[in-house]
Amino acid sequence: MAAELDGQALVVAGAMSSHPDVARESAAAWYLERAYTSFEEMAKAEASAANGIDFVIIATPNHLHCPVAKAFLAAGIHVVCDKPLALTVAEGEELARRVAAGSTLFALTHNYTGYPAVRQAREMVRAGQLGELRKVLVEYSQDWLMEPRESQGDKQAAWRTDPARAGEGGCIGDIGTHAANLLEFVTCRRIEALCADLSSFVAGRRLDDDANLLLRLEGGAKGTLVCSQVACGEENRLSIRIYGTRAGLEWRQQEPNTLLYKAAGSPWSELRAGQGYLAAPARALSRLPPGHPEGYLEAFGNIYRAFIADVRRVQLGQPPLRDYPGVEDGVRGLRFVAQAVASSRAGAVWLPV
Amino acid sequence: MAAELDGQALVVAGAMSSHPDVARESAAAWYLERAYTSFEEMAKAEASAANGIDFVIIATPNHLHCPVAKAFLAAGIHVVCDKPLALTVAEGEELARRVAAGSTLFALTHNYTGYPAVRQAREMVRAGQLGELRKVLVEYSQDWLMEPRESQGDKQAAWRTDPARAGEGGCIGDIGTHAANLLEFVTCRRIEALCADLSSFVAGRRLDDDANLLLRLEGGAKGTLVCSQVACGEENRLSIRIYGTRAGLEWRQQEPNTLLYKAAGSPWSELRAGQGYLAAPARALSRLPPGHPEGYLEAFGNIYRAFIADVRRVQLGQPPLRDYPGVEDGVRGLRFVAQAVASSRAGAVWLPV
Amino acid sequence: MAAELDGQALVVAGAMSSHPDVARESAAAWYLERAYTSFEEMAKAEASAANGIDFVIIATPNHLHCPVAKAFLAAGIHVVCDKPLALTVAEGEELARRVAAGSTLFALTHNYTGYPAVRQAREMVRAGQLGELRKVLVEYSQDWLMEPRESQGDKQAAWRTDPARAGEGGCIGDIGTHAANLLEFVTCRRIEALCADLSSFVAGRRLDDDANLLLRLEGGAKGTLVCSQVACGEENRLSIRIYGTRAGLEWRQQEPNTLLYKAAGSPWSELRAGQGYLAAPARALSRLPPGHPEGYLEAFGNIYRAFIADVRRVQLGQPPLRDYPGVEDGVRGLRFVAQAVASSRAGAVWLPV
Amino acid sequence: MAAELDGQALVVAGAMSSHPDVARESAAAWYLERAYTSFEEMAKAEASAANGIDFVIIATPNHLHCPVAKAFLAAGIHVVCDKPLALTVAEGEELARRVAAGSTLFALTHNYTGYPAVRQAREMVRAGQLGELRKVLVEYSQDWLMEPRESQGDKQAAWRTDPARAGEGGCIGDIGTHAANLLEFVTCRRIEALCADLSSFVAGRRLDDDANLLLRLEGGAKGTLVCSQVACGEENRLSIRIYGTRAGLEWRQQEPNTLLYKAAGSPWSELRAGQGYLAAPARALSRLPPGHPEGYLEAFGNIYRAFIADVRRVQLGQPPLRDYPGVEDGVRGLRFVAQAVASSRAGAVWLPV
Predict the structure, then answer these.
(1) 3-state SS assignment for residue B128
(2) Which bin fits B241, alpha (ψ -120 to 50), beta or left (φ > 0)?
């Protein structure tokens, strides 16, 4: 839905299953023209077809991200890949080398960066409206894994809690990386070091389902990152707060069209998506007038829109703008997860990222 | 975007302008396959084409709703029409007779009824969770016409404040009807009588830009409807509150994924879109898990989804469900506007609807 | 509590009951030094005592406001009286004449005007920050009378729904007057005309328990006033919104320390009680630093503080400032109620106030 | 104001300054009957006076808490003392021994525990409504020290950033202790270990003005505590969230009359202060009907009310209930600060509390 939202793309082919019947049925349900039973076959066939796809969307369990991405990169087909980028840092770095070595485009779906208010926050940080940053608080809380769903027949839960398919991070990999990426995206500063306390609260769970981290950022700001998939009652509570010497900012994903801005000595401000007073890059991300709420799909669609525009540019021989998360963000995410896991295993000690 | 959201429809033809060049360019910008310079031509050609359109979307200024709708109804093409249904009650009633006389489907885009929380509210009223209704407060406030935009080159403002193209209602017709429809949709009760005080605050404006109404409903409930397009600082503040003998309900369009429920003697409840505890008809309107905000487009898309499913049913010879606003709602809206205008002109006196 | 909040007054005497035993026990429970069994006796005794009270607080059912006030005015004792001022307009006007003819101070406890954010709103209107006023929406909703408590042994409910003790207004008199007063206080404009639809939803109730009004104000603004004591789930939901040509304002009593300000074309602002950027008269009403919530008692205490300062001024031979609601506000409130009741009885027609 | 709120106490004597003139003037301004120039003198004189004070309130800079408390304890006068209890753990433990050895009452003003919603939260935890606790997030953010006020003539800032008068904790001592106490109060579980990253963001500041902590609690819950006095735009943002296996809870001091409760699989609930459905200990802390906001003073007053009731009990020879924070809470607070400072100095490592 997000890819097709602006009428700029149409999903026409897919490898939805290795079982021919399932693949065919799924393709029919999605109105696909061409169904494959393996991604290798799809990459080859689409690359050589006259009307082959312009780009592929990888929305598999994590352990397949890397092999599928490699196959399509090798076939010269642009890639939009779910995060995390790969199972391990090494795998991710290899992928990054391949992307860097070629001219095929690569986007990573850190979709929350597609919200207008998030973009506005980054523009305000960049413009110095917050002054020197001192503190950042980022959170991503859910409750969908508060029971042992993985042993109750839930396929999503099964692979997301399985180290072989999800990687070494559970909650920290699944949503902690979104929080870390959001933090780095908005502040334009990297997490330099972390001290992570990961937990598996649900009995028998093989990966973490909750994490609390202390953070230190480039330039001296400090803060915390908390994430949980066992926070009873929370749906998809992603939020970020940033405090600088001149102002504070706050954004909450569940009410995404408002950005709270607290300048020193002034009334609090609520900046609203779609308004003319926003910075141009934020304004450009709204499709509707203010007060007509846009949400998750629209933000996700903004990532696709920027990527598709780049695909067009490349097809016209123009340089791409790469105004969306890419393979390097993916590598950073993998390092973040690896160091968080290592920190926690060592007793929640400080490690660089 | 809303029509195509679920991948169930594709906009392929259009009459975007009477100027051939503009029509062609607009069609190209929208990736349309077929461009027309008149709706009559389009209706005829599409009706006789093998791959002609299944339904048409009428998104013109109000005065064209009726002639365009008639043309497509006559051609046997299903119709999705913007509100208000027509310029006058008489025009609307004629349209309603034609729809009733045929088997062509007709939907009116009272799109706000497509929100999951709105549907949930109706289900709760229907199930008796509010008891006997006593009071309803409905509001729709904007500020986009607080300056005389119609004389400053704004085309939207120009036709919406022009009686010849908008009808006799300004604000009351443009957004007051949405509020009235929402009220009747959720309460399942009709507005029986109204007392309306309409104003044109902006100098030189020919239609009302603000209205305050007292309401009486079937069954004894009373309330107010206020709407404004000069409410400085308001974007698209549509909200409804309903109080019964057992509970109160509150919904606000700008934060549409929450429904506030206040049962007598109990803590206030926030019901959230997408949750499993919602009534089935409300649950069915969410595309994403809870906490992944859906907004205006998704709600609008729900109207289209229900309509398209009906188009399929009719094509398969099955009876349609008509689970979306239709031509009768349009006639009611026109009567509401006519009586509000008449009431106000008579000095804000009570009139039946 | 409110009177004593600033340590500027001490309740030392009272006529709490006409039964000597009850009067004595009540006085003891309140740590009073002197107990009376009639207000006449109290007025006389305190007026002639060396350490007699400086002012009296009248917190009786409505029908006693006037006789008690007269007794203390006659005794030269300053008066703080609950609203409504009296049972009828005539009674209230007579009281106003007596107050005007003497030098005894008189305050009416329209306590909601004591909130810092309310005062700030008035200062902003006065300073022209809203431009020319166009629309006002004021509301006061409760649910405590949604059941027939008056026939279930609830004394408060009994007198408040009894015309002989409450006057001809039920909900409209008890809380509608607060809403009307708040509106006039903040806008600095009078309600010129009203059209009122009053209801008694609870079977057997002798006075209205719900009201919806259309309003017209001096200077051309229009709006609505809604109040209810049967709005299931509402506690004490008093709120006001004002829209002008330059900005909108919104205040909600249940979260009283924030004033929402929406200037044209700008982000929404939240002004917070206690902050240095507020107007001086608003700043002066906070006792604590920002973020330390103050509430109902503190706002009520602000009325007392201003009144007590006036008592001191008068005792020192200085002219009083009268920066609190007075007897004239009381007369206006009585007229408002009388016209609302008359309007409703005549079928909800327009009447001047 | 808080002590006198319920009319159960009157401040009659004080040692407001060591300068006789200032002491006299301050006493007059506060309407005190007796002014002293030293606390030793006051303790002695009041202890031997027939109408001597029943209890003393210690509201001095931190370094005086212990000597003043000792003087009044020695004189047999009950003590209400500001937090932190003393300058050092050793000092605090000595004080605790003296309190334990005698029969003089001792209250520590962790005033935020006096809010009805906070008490309700504790009752719900105690009753098992949250199940087994997994996660706690507590925060206390302000911005009043975001500039170097201590070098700009601000007396409050001067002593609060001076180790000799404030102790070794700055922000962590001043407000971090409130957060820690609130957490332990509501969860009924002790902080077992912490890992603290303290900062002094303002140049030249001698104590911390910001802190981020990881926490582990008795029974296995984990979480974070963040506090700041340089969080630009924040007033007094104290909040707590608790997640258990059955529900989550959330409370925010700036809107203190609402407690958010999120039970698994159910709509979110807003419990409101003053409502009949609250637990009895929470209901008892409201003075007004629901919807009449109570705030900081009222919560503080609840601590005094419970303490004064105990004073009465002791005077009547009855055992005290000690339903307010006491000297042991003070010792815990001092240990918390000491270990947070030690942890941070060692590079933010884990230490037991």
Answers:
(1) coil
(2) beta
DSSP string covering A83-126: SS-SSSHHHHHHHHHHHHHS---EEE--GGGGSHHHHHHHHHHH
**Residue D101, both tokens:** 């050895």
State the average pLDDT over residues B65-90: 97
Of B201, B223, B263, the CB nearest to C233: B263
Confidence of residue C314 (pLDDT cuts 50, 70, 90): very high
Task: Give chain D positions within 8 Å (CB) of B129.
Answer: none
Supply the pLDDT for residue A317. Answer: 97
Burial group, residue D115, by CB count within 10 angstroms (0-12, 13-18, 19+): buried
Residue A222, amino acid: K
Buried b (16+ CB within 10 A) or exposed e, A90-113: ebbbebbebbeeeebbbbbbbbbb
CA distances from D183 to B46, B276, D14, D230 (A): 69, 32, 34, 22
Cα–Cα distance between D215 and A122 in angstroms, integer? 31
Q: What is the pLDDT of residues A134-186, one digit of tens each?
A: 999 999 999 999 999 999 999 999 999 999 999 999 999 999 999 999 999 99
Output the furthest CA–CA distance in chain B (Å, rounded): 65
Chain D positions touching B265 (Cβ under 8 A) are: 276-277
Q: Which two tokens stand for residue D27?
A: 């006493």
C positions 234-293 inside 8 Å of D (CB): 234-237, 253-257, 272, 274, 287-293
Exposed, middle or buried by CB within 10 Å (0-12, 13-18, 19+), for A285?
A: buried
User: DSSP letters of A117-162?
Assistant: HHHHHHHHHHTTTT-SEEEEEEEEE--TTSS-GGGTT-HHHHHHT-
Point out which residues pair with B217 in neighbouring strands: B191
Q: pLDDT of B222-274, one tens digit each? A: 999 999 999 999 999 999 999 999 999 999 999 999 999 999 999 999 999 99
Alpha carbon distance D193, D220 (integer Å): 11
Residue B342, SS3 per DSSP:
helix
8 A C-beta contact, residue D213 and residue D349: no
Kindly tell me the sign of the dihedral angle through the C-alpha atoms of B156, B157, B162, B167: positive
Q: What distances in angstroms separate CA A303 from CA A106, C4, D214, one per listed residue?
A: 12, 61, 34
Interface test mutation site (partner D, options C6, C143, C236, max chain D beta carbons within 10 A): C236
Cβ pairs bridging B and D (under 8 Å)? 30
- Contact criterion met (CB below 8 Å) for A114 and A303: yes
Nearest-Cα residue of chain C relative to residue D255:
C255
**HSE-CB of B38 using CA atoms within 13 angstroms:** 5
Query: Which three-class secondary structure state does DSSP give residue D68?
Result: helix
- CA A135 to chain CA mean position, Å: 23
Q: Specify whether the CB–CB gap between A306 and A55 falls below 8 A.
A: no
Q: For residue A261, which residues of chain C lie inside 8 Å, CB to CB? A: 267
Q: B148-179, pLDDT tens digit by residue?
A: 999 999 999 999 999 999 999 999 999 999 99
Q: Omega before B84 cis (within 30°)?
A: yes
The DSSP bridge pattern shows strands A191-199 and D34-36 to be unpaired
Whole-angstrom distance, CA of residue D342 vs CA of residue A193: 20
Backbone angles phi, psi at B293, to 5 degrees: -60, 135
Report whether pLDDT(B18) > 90: no
Q: Give the distance from residue D247's alpha carbon to the nearest chain B alpha carbon, in angstroms.
A: 15
ipTM above 0.85, yes or no: yes
CB atoms within 10 A of CB A145: 26
Q: Contacts of residue B294 in chain A, CB cutoff 8 Å?
A: 295-297
* SS3 label, residue D166: helix
Cα(D262)–Cα(D311) distance, rounded to whole angstroms? 39
